[in-house]
Amino acid sequence: MFNKKSPKDMTEAEWREKLTPEQFRILREKGTERAFTGPYWNTFETGTYSCSACGSKLFKSDTKFDAGCGWPSFFEAVAPDVVTEHKDTTLGMVRTEICCASCGGHLGHVFPDGPPPTGLRYCMNGTSMTFTPDE
Question: Family per UniProt (predicted)?
Fold first, then answer.
């Protein structure tokens, strides 16, 4: 019987094979795309945003808003357990990193300056996600 490997059990070599170089840099090496250059920062179609590494659903378009920051921004994940939070002290700042709970891929950061009802701004790298429009 064939057992599919869990995304959390994949090696870095396997991730390099699966992802584009830019996806690997962002998702596995905690990189960031430049503002206003990645996909989806200016996309407002109806649909679902998923992790580009493992396909887990992360955000719905009805929680997306224009934060003016140049990255796709959302005020809420599809469920609390689809992302994990980690303290990030790089670049001389204290921030909260957001990762995909299924594969551990780096997605971006969350800030407490978003709109109601949550007051959160999930500032995500567009390269770390795929978008599926609603039919």
Answer: Belongs to the MsrB Met sulfoxide reductase family.
